[in-house]
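Weekly puzzle thread! Below is a chain. First person to post its structure in token form gets bragging rights.
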Amino acid sequence: MEMLLIELNKESEIPLYEQIYQQIRNDITEGKLIVGEKLPSKRKLGEFLDVSQTTIEIAYGQLAAEGFITSKPRRGYFVQEIGELAYVQPTEAMTIAAKEEQKELEIDFSPGKIDTESFPFTQWRKYAKDTIDESSQHLLLLGHPHGDVELRQEIAKYLYHSRGVDCSADQIIVGSGTEQLMPLLIRLLGPQAKYAIEDPGYPLTHHVFFHNNREAVPIAVDEEGMDVQALQKSGGTVAYVTPSHQFPTGTVLSAGRRTALLNWAASSVGHFIIEDDYDSEFRYSGRPIPSLQGMDKAGKVIYVSTFSKSLMPSLRIAYMVLPPVLLKNYEDAFIHYSSTVPRLDQHALARFMADGHFARHLNRMRKVYKRKLQLLTDSLRQYTPAISFSGDEAGMHIIINVHTNEDEDTLVDAALAKGIRVYGLNNYRKASKSRQPSFLIGFGGLTDDRIPWTVERLMEAWNIEKR
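Winning reply:
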């Protein structure tokens, strides 16, 4: 071939070599240059296009790397056989429909946020640095499938002293989040299991059961927790509960209901309780609520918890405590599985706990969140009786009820229009929706100085005045 007809735009932001590359590639894919045809030499094409040989060399090099042309020593470049072409570079820029931009949020009352300013960076940095050392070469290899024993031993000690959970390290399975452990548990309990879930309840759990093709029936929650009589009539075989601080209502499962629930579980071989103890560390009045697992004498409670609230969500370390009756089945079913949590993270956390920093961190954070809660409730009281609130004895969120003729969705939209995101309680319900507009208000991620202001902004959005 004598020469290639290539149009260059030297004013374009597209580099010259890329313009040459694109036009030659298009000519090849469109059949304008046939297989085996020789391309002009770098020197000749450079002189013809009035560009340097380096520019041509870069363009040819890219074409050769992608298999459009091949270089033959002392002979030059030739068009390569590329067969049926699966893709052709479009001549016009493609546009991808972008998602509608969301209104920028000024305030987010998410229940999943924590106080990041109070994180013990200095101590955590030390353990992370000490773990990443040549003396820790063994941590680069796969560890125990249940999680490293050092961490499981620390978790077992912590659970016994803080929650009354009676277990050995062997019963603990460490995983990267509750959403990773739950599918394993669902498989372990078998396809015949029918799950009874709290209503309202944790939406992620609902999705896990749905995506794993498991039947789940909603059981109403009242001021004493899950209605055990309704559970007994539902035909459910596995009850998923958050007894110490029900999510999202904040209700504590009453003593009578606890006894009834444990008796229900003990009444049948196939009955089990999944106790999700997601934020029990943060209780601000009275004695800590004992775990169901610690009260269980029949080996029917599967205890599940996480470090997301107590330490940080991004750590992605959760765990479950299996009763002995399920442990052997788990080991047989998942013998070839490896732990999904990096061993370096496991050991940093284990040492952090062993040296007492985790306990000290929890003590500090209880004070931090108790102060935030006090600021929030003091601010909300200025707007009663137009609003009321509940669930303010534990955790990192409360429920507020708005006494108005407006419905919940209207109030959500009104807040969002002002750059405020609130979370309607009906979004957590599976059965009948409530006509009473109620909202889950998380305060963990709010700074002390902004809490009164956030409440004021929210009430302004809803046209609620101070009393």
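Puzzle host: Confirmed. Bonus trivia for everyone else. The first strand starts at residue 69 and ends at 72.
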